[in-house]
Design goal:
26 helices; single chain; four-stranded antiparallel β-sheet; alpha/beta; 12 strands
């Protein structure tokens, strides 16, 4: 029976996503589907799967890997003010994603404790702290997947929802650790948890440089990056247990350390494959298997708790709606509030800890799990049904060009509207008068000081191009843009001295020099006329795209369904340029340089770049 249960669980882990893809069930998270199937096949349904020693071990490894991968989801760049610039929201207001997310989450915490006390006063559930922790959690993995599907992670509302979810995973996990220490009789040793964070920092500093070396020598038979990941997991899980903390906190910190080591896309893909390909589905299926609905329905008090919990899980996130509605369109603020109500990834480990501490009965735990499942089904459906992609959400990158002249105006017109939103600025009255009627978004700048540039939104975009006629102006603007945290800064310079060029190279500022460009085009016309025609063709376009869509990784070029409609000229893998061949296998993070007809090339770029 034990072997049959293991076989059925592995079979279901394979069949469930195939079934969902075949019948196009996209609104329900795969994790929720796995729990539901586990309920049907377990003690609440046909009782075909029972909990065995092997399945329990694999399930425990699954929850540890789930927390590890959750830690790897944290985007630390967003938490830094310089990498978290203010932007225009859908309501036309300036929004600071980090500040807005913190405000929303403070509201969630207050509301969660209020609702937890209500549960205690009504006699439905007496553990205020535990209930509050569960009510304030947000399923970061579900949120990221949903935002990626809408392709709005880089937009102000996407960043705000993401940061709210990050707080909704990190803060409850820390509170759970404190709660478990106090209720587990280790309150006097609570300070030892500091040692866990010290260990995490030590491992990060110890492996920061060696990891770069690992990436160079790793081979298919050694996989040092994956070995290091599992070493980090078990090292910090062991430390966590020794200092009286929960092992899930150790696994979560291991994920954060791995993220800060800046692993390659290939490494992330392998770790995700190991986790979500095998261990994590077993954890979710077994969660459903051990969930006993018959016992829940036989206890009126626990059964009464179920609808109340579903309602409270939504009410706890009302502060998100009230905060978002100040900055975003009402319908999208409503959708964002519902999405943050998803709560499954932290709830399940939390209930595991609570059962171990005997702070909750099995029927109460089942009620919490079932409530979380119901909310996880409803929330993405409500989000997808109500969220409306506005024009600004569909723009991939915002470009600010300072300087309106015969070079920049044609470029602004030629940049593809599906990929770029262009704003132009000039401090020259005559240029403003000349081009105002020809450029849709042209702003006159009274001067080029930092305050004026920031006030008029020059630093609100993703790319800043300093293209005035005066080199000193462009150098000044480029330096300011980089200091403001702009990802890409391009400076037009007629003369480039070695000191400035060295400085710009170190800062990552790109230099456009007309003389060099004209010479390069002339050389291309003489040496490679085909390349020149591709660059100047008005019917076709040349693109470079970083492959993020895992649907197209691990496949040969010849097997891509659109390969006959484009021409792949080069593939950049790390620092190496590859000559593409039909048998070349695409890896995560590869940069493909290809050309094709506008409409086809746009579609291919969109497909390959989706995460």
């Amino acid at each position: 029976m034990a072997q049959l249960s293991l076989f059925l669980v592995v079979l279901l882990a394979l069949v469930i996503p195939i079934f969902m893809a075949r019948f196009q069930i996209s609104n329900v998270p795969t994790a929720v589907a796995e729990i539901i199937v586990g309920i049907i096949m377990g003690s609440s349904g046909f009782n075909l799967i029972t909990s065995t020693h092997d399945l329990t071990l694999l399930s425990n490894l699954g929850v540890i890997l789930l927390m590890f991968l959750s830690g790897m989801e944290i985007d630390f760049d967003l938490l830094q003010r310089k990498n978290n610039p203010k932007g225009k929201s859908q309501a036309g207001k300036t929004v600071d994603p980090l500040k807005t997310a913190i405000t929303a989450f403070i509201g969630i915490v207050i509301m969660a404790f209020v609702l937890a006390y209500v549960l205690r006063l009504t006699g439905l559930f007496s553990e205020v702290m535990l209930a509050a922790i569960i009510l304030m959690t947000v399923a970061l993995g579900v949120v990221i997947a949903t935002l990626k599907e809408k392709d709005i992670l880089g937009r102000p509302i996407g960043q705000t929802i993401l940061l709210t979810a990050v707080l909704g995973e990190v803060i409850p996990l820390l509170l759970l650790t404190i709660y478990a220490s106090i209720n587990g009789g280790n309150a006097e040793q609570l300070w030892l948890i500091i040692l866990l964070f010290v260990a995490a920092i030590f491992l990060l500093r110890r492996f920061k440089q060696p990891y770069l070396w690992f990436a160079k020598i790793t081979k298919s038979t050694t996989q040092l990056d994956i070995r290091l990941a599992f070493f980090l997991i078990f090292a910090l899980v062991t430390v966590a247990e020794r200092v009286g903390a929960e092992n899930i906190l150790g696994a979560f910190l291991a994920g954060m350390v791995m993220k800060l080591l800046e692993p390659s896309e290939a490494t992330k893909d392998k770790l995700t494959s190991i986790g979500y390909g095998f261990f994590i589905p077993i954890f979710f299926i077994m969660t459903g298997v051990v969930l006993n609905l018959r016992s829940l329905f036989a206890h009126p008090s626990s059964l009464m708790l179920l609808p109340v919990l579903v309602i409270f899980l939504f009410i706890a996130k009302v502060p998100v709606l009230l905060t978002y509605v100040r900055y975003f369109q009402k319908k999208n603020a409503f959708a964002g509030g519902f999405l943050t109500a998803t709560t499954i990834t932290i709830v399940l480990p939390t209930l595991q800890v609570a059962r171990k501490l005997h702070a909750i009965t099995s029927t109460q735990s089942d009620a919490f799990i079932l409530a979380a499942v119901i909310v996880c089904i409803l929330s993405p459906i409500v989000f997808n049904s109500n969220f409306v992609l506005l024009p600004e959400d569909k723009i991939k990158e915002k470009v600010a060009i300072v300087g309106a002249n015969a070079v920049t105006v044609p470029v602004a017109h030629d940049l593809h509207a599906n990929w770029y939103s262009v704003k132009m600025f000039t401090d020259k009255k005559n240029q403003y008068k000349t081009y105002d009627s020809r450029v849709e978004n042209l702003t006159f700048l009274p001067n080029l000081d930092e305050e004026t540039l920031e006030k008029d939104g020059v630093f609100d975009g993703d790319i800043v191009v300093a293209a005035n006629r005066a080199d000193e102006d462009n150098i000044k603007i480029a330096r300011m843009a980089k200091e403001k945290g702009i990802n890409r800064v391009i400076a037009r310079l007629s003369e480039v001295d070695s000191k400035t060029l060295t400085e710009f190279n170190e800062k990552g500022i790109e230099v456009f020099n007309s003389t060099n460009v004209h010479a390069a085009l002339m050389r291309a016309m003489i040496e490679s006329p085909t390349v020149y025609r591709i660059m100047t063709d008005t019917k076709n376009i040349l693109y470079s795209v970083k492959v993020k869509n895992t649907h197209y990784t691990g496949r040969q070029l010849m097997d891509l369904e659109f390969i006959d409609q484009i021409t792949v000229s080069r593939i950049k893998r790390g620092d190496e340029w590859l000559i593409p061949r039909g048998a070349t296998v695409i890896e995560p993070g590869d940069i493909l340089v290809f050309s094709g007809e506008f409409k086809v090339a746009d579609r291919v770029r969109d497909l390959l770049s989706k995460e």
